[in-house]
Design a protein that fits this description.
2 helices, about 0% strand, about 80% helix, about 60 residues, mainly alpha
Length: about 60
């Protein structure tokens, strides 16, 4: 029998990832000088990786 993740836990994880992504993407936009399509794609992609690493790091520290 496999364990399922409760919907509330999945929504909290998604919310945390979206919050990290938003903060990191905004930080990226603050630091660049020109905003074109390629910069947005690169910034969004880097923010996704950063959000995943931030969540993994937080979970490793809090042992959840």
């Amino acid at each position: 029998m496999t364990r399922r993740t409760p919907p509330r836990t999945a929504l909290l994880a998604l919310g945390e990832l979206l919050a990290w992504w938003g903060a990191l993407a905004l930080l990226w936009l603050v630091f660049i000088t020109s905003v074109d399509t390629l910069e947005r794609i690169v910034g969004g992609s880097c923010a996704v990786v950063g959000a995943l690493l931030a969540r993994a790091g937080r979970r490793a520290v809090t042992w959840r």
